[in-house]
């Protein structure tokens, strides 16, 4: 049953090692596994622009006797629900088990990310943030709320800061960019075509681009500087969980770096912002009303 449950994960993990024709089959399946369970072998072959024997070879390469058995295993994998939740979770986990697994997975992933991040790249990223005339945080999908969180953090540094999750607005801002503008583009995979195009457009207009993304990805290559974020989970299959937590933590690291670089003279400004929130809160039990 584990092999069935992990079939989608196996296909994704072996994607780069498949030959060109079989990779086309894999990409069609991964793009919409639910639809693949309903396609005939002829329809799948047509969608992947390959022959039916290629589909059969693809099945055998994953230890499956033929396409009908592959569809059955895909259906069982989808029915379990676990594949689209988290790598750590099994379909029969109870509340205690999946709570422990999710927390454990997040802690392990954060520790792994901490070990792999290059402090010199962190320092250079802080340089870009300090020197920027204005900063735009861009993200799409699960990275969009991360971009909004970054806006909440960085506006405190007395900089012009925005966050946008709309592709058209992102393109317009990139098209009127100038030297001194910094675009921080957040993408876990770094393969989102629109964000890569925006990065190129911003740099063509003289702006700098800081990518928070996967090493070697198209976005990393398009960026002025890429802060490579490890890939503890496959978001083509799994719901973004630890990946989002890592992104948020990396932004906390950058915000802390900016704060320390600004020095003690900047502390009164941060304190003033924090104290402005006092009137919006109910007092604690210990405080007088």
From TrEMBL:
Q: List, for all copies, the residue spans of the domain called HTH rpiR-type.
A: 5-81
GO MF term set: carbohydrate derivative binding; DNA binding; DNA-binding transcription factor activity
Keyword field contains Transcription regulation: yes
Query: Does the entry feature the keyword Mitochondrion, yes or no?
Result: no
Keywords for the protein's UniProt record, in alphabetical order: DNA-binding, Repressor, Transcription, Transcription regulation
Q: Where is the SIS domain?
A: 125-264
A Pfam family for this UniProt protein?
A: SIS
Q: Which CDD domains does the UniProt entry name for this protein?
A: SIS_RpiR (cd05013)
Q: Which GO terms describe its biological process?
A: carbohydrate derivative metabolic process
The superkingdom of the source organism is Bacteria
The task this protein performs is described as: Involved in regulation of glucose metabolism. Transcriptional repressor of the gap-1 gene and of the edd-glk-gltR-2 and zwf-pgl-eda operons. Acts by binding directly to an inverted pseudopalindromic sequence in the promoter region.
- Protein name according to UniProt: HTH-type transcriptional regulator HexR
User: Which species is the source of this protein?
Assistant: Pseudomonas taeanensis MS-3
